[in-house]
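so i finally got all the pieces together for this one. its two components total, 441 residues if u count the protein bits. some of the lines might not be protein, just check the labels. i wanna see the whole assembly predicted at once instead of chain by chain like last time, that was a mess tbh
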Amino acid sequence: MKITQEQFNKAQKTFSKKSLSDTQKHTMLSNIYTESKVTITKPVVSPLSSYFIFFRQKAFVAVAVMVLLVSGTSYASAQSLPGDLLYGIKVNVIEPIGLAIRFSEESKNEYKISLLQKRIEELEELKQGGKLNEDSQKASSEATDKNVRDLESSAIFDEHGENVDVAEKIKVYNNLIDSEIKIETNIKINNEEKPDVNEDVGGEKIANDLDSVLDGHEDSGLDLGGDIQVNKGIEIENQDGLPLNMEGGSDIEAKIPEL
Amino acid sequence: MPFSKKMKIIKSWIMEDAREEYNNRENFESLFQTYSDVIYRLCLYKTSNESVAHDLTQETFLRLWKSISSNKEITKPKQYIYQIARNLIVDYYKMNKAVSLDELQEEGFDPRSEESSAELVSEVSILKEAIESLDQEFRDVVYMRFVEGMKVKEIAEILDISENLVSVRISRGKNKLKEKFT
């Protein structure tokens, strides 16, 4: 088909006037917005992130509460005494942790001996507070027994097979607790009572006492005269190794100095 | 952070989003008003079917709106719109090529029920016969210049070629077109 320029110009003029009506455009826009709402999934991060902050804060509070609970429990259990609810945590959790963070055998032993001392102090505290009963003694004994078993295998003994420090502490502990639940151990404990010569049965003390009696006479204005011999008899109990070589029931003679 | 302060921040974000959407809509509707008829005529010229041209135009601007609303940076909107329309036209022909007219008629398709008037089909066929007979490089330039009445600068922007090249092609295309007229 041959086309003339006039036909082309006419077609061009008519065609260029072709357009969408306002209604068509309006409908088209409306369709576009409706369809885009269904298909477009725009990521909305910002508002949600505020909730994440909110939850993060909650998590932080939860962690803080847990830390406080754990640290509070640890502190309370560290202060507990045998028979208390938290005493088990103290001897089975906290003290083993304390042992685990010591690396040399020497420091481990020192720590175990300090625990033994702690058991003694606990018993003394219970005694002072009037709380020493069957349950508390049993709890203390169990903890101490465990402690002593550890020391039996790890304590350092001298050439006589003794560890005076440990033995002394076990002895003190056993003196504080009922005889039925005393700690039995293969560690050598010297049960002999060594007399203390400096106690109040010494000769020097007796002489001092006598002086004070005589001084009392001076204060009262009583004239005893010169060279008066006063026999002051003092009853003393049987004691071995007294420096004055006195026997029980004997009298001590003291010369009153001249006035 | 207090609840009221959170709500204030959320409110400001919502307001910001709303403002952004308003700006996007304004930008989009401005492009729609300027180019909807041009794109419609391009689709009509290529398909000779008003209904298809309408759908393709709508699809072109739907894709444009999706790009704008997702904050995609569009540096050359005219070129971008033309590119979408041309791609859609190619897709339309590819799709229709696979289905024969007999198959469409079996499915109830009646070509006579199409809205395109005989006058329109005649006009489009005159333009197409004249322009499509030119070499590939002159077709778009001649169509834009002599059917759409676009300026050299605008054509250069849409086709992403230099204004000088557009002028040369317009001149040569015009001469070649005249040669074809009886």
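Residues 3-47 of chain B form the longest helix (45 residues).
Chain B has two domains: 1-116, 117-182.
anyway lmk what u think
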